[in-house]
Amino acid sequence: DAKGDNDPYFVNGELTKFDTITLSGSLRDEPLVLEYDADESTPIPNQITSPVFTFASDERVSTLLGILTNGFTSADAYVINYTDADLKKYNLDVPQSVITWKVRDTTVTMKLSEYEEGYYAGLVNDNPVIYKITESTAEFFDWQLSDVRNNIMFAVNIIDVKALKVTTPAGSADFQITNSEVTDEDGDTTIKTIVTNNAASVRAESFQNFYAYLVAMPPFEFVEYTSGKGDPVIELEYTYTNGKSDTVAYYKYNDRFYLY
Fold first, then answer.
1. Higher pLDDT among residues 187 and 110, named by residue
2. Which of 32, 53, 135, 162 has its Cα between 20 and 30 A from that of 41?
3. Which residues contact 64 (CB under 8 A, 6 or more apart)?
């Protein structure tokens, strides 16, 4: 309810931040958990943290948050003061789709199941009503991991990276990155990047192009593949200015594609 100018969860009256959003229900093999990176340590703060870590689609997150901001309208009510028998009749004893939003101290849960053509039967929190909900108003009903993920696989601003180690079966390269502010005679400030590899100077523009390709490389498709990967064909170890680090590895999938 707080939409003040100083509320960090809202921008121009629109909810833009959240703590967690969880999609579960019988349509999903396991819960899909989204979290907002409160530290904003990456350019994409909307993240999927379970069952795997990856970035979430800003468009999908905006749709989910819009329901809380703008409200959710039902077409009618199937039952008021429902019983356990009603829940079974409307397939809500085991809901097909469950979405739970957590924003600060507020938690909202919606449960949905198919009941008749064009409509879902739904529950909201502990309200004693089984709602009649138009399918088009609940487009998230059957969203899976592949529907919610972002096409960007890895995103860290080069300004926040102080070292990048690239390892392949043929050898490795250790890039050290220094970013500093430079002010010209007009008072304009720019970032100057200096890159070395094992103390040898590296052309900064070429490295920046290489880095931009690494973080912007789009995936061909999303596949679930957890075993038999073998050794990586290339491994990238990022060390950040805050002391943290990440390792990204690519494995051969077949003659045309690699796993990330």
1. 110
2. 32
3. 21, 34, 99, 101, 140
Q: CA-to-CA distance for 128 and 4, rounded, in angstroms? A: 32
Measured in Å, how far apart are the chain's first and last C-alpha atoms? 41
Q: How far apart are CA 131 and CA 77, in angstroms?
A: 4
CA distance 92 to 83: 11
Helices (H), 175-255: 204-216
Alpha helices in 46-143 (DSSP H): 58-70, 84-89
Is the alpha carbon torsion for 100, 103, 108, 114 positive or negative? negative
pTM over 0.85: no
Q: What is the pLDDT of residues 193-251, one digit of tens each?
A: 889 988 788 988 888 888 888 887 777 776 665 555 678 899 999 998 888 888 888 88
Looking at the DSSP assignment, which residues form a beta bridge with residue 121?
A: 113, 132
CA atoms of 22 and 32, how far apart (whole Å): 6
Do residues 9 and 16 make contact, with C-beta atoms less than 8 angstroms apart? yes
